[in-house]
Amino acid sequence: MGIKNKIIKSENLAHEYARRDESGDVTGIVRALDGIDVQIEAGSFVAVLGANGSGKSTFAKHLNGLLFPTEGTLYIDGMDTADSENTLAVRQTAGMVFQNPDNQIIANIVEEDVGFGPENMGVPTDKILKRVEECLKETGMYSYRRHSPNHLSGGQKQRVAVAGVLAMRPKCIILDEATAMLDPAGRKNVLDTIVRLNKKEHITVILITHYMEEVTLADYVYVMKQGKVAYSGTPGEVFQNVGMLRECRLEAPQITQIAQGLQKAGIPLTQGVFTIEGLAKELLELAKKR
Ligand code: ADP
Ligand code: MG
After folding, report:
1. What is the assigned CATH class of domain 3-106+164-238?
2. Edge-to-edge strands, sheet with 172-176
3. Domain boundaries, given as residue ranges, for the chain
4. Residue 95 Cα, ligand 1 centroid: separation in angstroms?
5. Does the pTM of the predicted model rise above 0.85?
6. pLDDT in tens, 244-282
7. Ligand 1 touching residue 58 (CB < 6 A)
């Protein structure tokens, strides 16, 4: 596949922050990204996994044109993010949903909040209204369009934030631990919405998370460690690699750990079981063979 199909392509991407003391003097350099090479196909669902401080948010901010490479190059849909003329288009192409929904919702009414992005982009009013309606329907929040975001649950607020990003018609949506503050029901609703957008609208999804269970939704996973991609592969390949996960201060999902325990006990399961359904199916097959 040519570069055209790579919505995200980085070459030796590095980012350095200046570390400062209380008086603002630079005391050192933090190399938060250190030679990142990734190529992400348009329409794919990619998870970025890594312990705290491994560089995930820094990477996300590069994808969204909030930070620029110290070294190396990053292309978003063929646009070099280092070129300031591309910044607006980059932000529009790759929309970001942050961890805390309260920090990204600005208006007092849901539909106004969702319309804010396209309004800033200069989209005509009649088109904004139509987009807002579509995006609220897509995220299951249409019936709340006249509500105040303040009275919504965390999961509902995040779906409004997702709608707000969608209203800018991005090709790619980045979720930086966007479910971390949600209860299980809210998390599931947000993830279901994201999966649907990926499958039906073919929006590229970059899901940054430290929840192993969420990673199972992805086609492909990048595991980060100290600013580098320590490993990449399918969720099954990643979860099998217990040694690598431990080195990256991560753990396989509970179901995978159970499956690995059963394997050790001599039950011949295949490698890379990571869902309840998958484990149930394998155990059933084995039971039938007895
Ligand atoms: P993650 O999202 O995986 O937790 P971050 O990208 O937030 O990782 O951070 C990567 C590294 O960069 C960490 O060592 C962090 O302390 C450092 N860092 C992040 N933001 C800043 C900043 N604004 N100034 C200085 N150092 C930072
Ligand atoms: Mg982070």
Report:
1. alpha beta
2. 94-97, 172-176, 204-209, 45-50, 220-225, 228-233
3. 3-106+164-238, 253-290
4. 20
5. yes
6. 999 999 988 888 889 889 989 999 888 778 888 889 999
7. yes
